[in-house]
Amino acid sequence: MPIPREILVGQLKDGLRRFYRQHGRDFPWRPYVTGSFGTLVAEMLLRQTKADQVAEVWPMLMDRFPNPKALANADSEELYKMVVGLGLGRQRAKALHEVSAVLVKNHRGRVPKSIEKLLALPHVGLYTAHATACFAFGQRVPVVDANVMRVLGRLFGEKLGPDNRRSPRAWELATEILPAIGSAKEHNYGLLDFSALICTSGKPLCRECPFNGGCMWCYEHVWSKVDFSTRPPNPPPWPR
After folding, report:
1. Per-residue pLDDT tens for 127-149?
2. If DSSP codes are grouped into helix, strand and coil, which group holds residue 59?
3. What is the DSSP string of 165-231?
4. Domain boundaries, given as residue ranges, for the chain
C-alpha cells in the first residue's frame, strides 16, 4: 500500500520547494525584480499557452510597455503584432489593453494585492488572481490550473475534472499541501514545474518522482503490478 496520506502531504509541503530549488525552470518573469505588473502580464499571456512561447514575447512587451499607463496607451495594432504569435492575438491585445486601463483609472497604475480586487479586474480569472497574489506579493495562497489538477488527482486518487473554476476540491487539496512557513512562491512554482517536468500529461516519469511512494496513481498503475513475494521489498524493485 502507499504510504499514509498525512506523510504524503508532509512530503509535498517540503518537497515541492526543494524540487523548485533543484530543478525549477528559468523564465524571465520569475526573478523578484520583475514587479507586480510584469507578473500579471506574464500570467495573462500564459493562459492556454506554453511558457517557452511566452518567454520569447514577454521581455519585448515589457521593454516596450513597462507599466500600466504605457500599455493602456499602446497602439492596438502594434500590441496585436507583438502577441499574435501566441495565438488569440486580438483577444490577448484587447485584454492587456483593458486591464491596464482599469489599473490606471481605478488603482493609480498599481496592481492590487487582494484576491478580491484582482478578480474584479477585466480578463483576470481565479488562477491568474491567485498566481499574481502569490508570485508578485508572496501571499500564501494556492494556485490551481489544469496541470496542477492532473497532479493532485493522481497523487490523491481523486477525479477533479479539467476545469479549476468548477472544482473546489482541487483548491482544497492545493491549500492543504501549502507549507505553513517558508516560501509559498517557491512551493507553487515547484508544483507547476513538477507538473511540466515529471507528472506530465502523457507518460509521467514515475521512476524519477520523489513522491511515488505515496502516489495513488503510481500505486495503481505501477506498484500493484509488482510481485513482492519473489523480490526483496526494501528497496522495492522498479517494475519494468
Report:
1. 999 999 999 999 999 999 999 99
2. helix
3. GG-HHHHHHHHHTS-SSS-HHHHHHHHHHHHHHTS-SSS--GGG-TTTTT-HHHHHHTGGG--GGGS
4. 5-26+142-224, 32-137
Cell of 220: 495503481
Name residue, grid cell 503490478.
Answer: 225
Residue in the structure block whose three cell numbers are 497574489:
133
Q: Is the pLDDT of residue 180 over 80?
A: yes
Nearest to 17 by CA among 193, 216, 207, 198: 193
Place of cell 514577454: 58
pTM of structure: 0.91
| CATH superfamily for domain 32-137 | Hypothetical protein; domain 2 (1.10.340.30)
What interhelical angle do 5-23 and 184-197 show, nearest 10?
Answer: 90
Q: Give the closest residue to 41 by CA, choosing from 64, 19, 62.
A: 62
Using DSSP's 3-state secondary structure scheme, residue 164 falls into: helix
5-26+142-224, CATH topology level? Endonuclease Iii, domain 2 (1.10.1670)
Helical pair 36-45 and 51-64, crossing angle rounded to 10 deg: 140
Residues 6+ apart with CB under 8 A from 125: 119, 165
Nearest to 34 by CA among 189, 225, 143, 212: 189
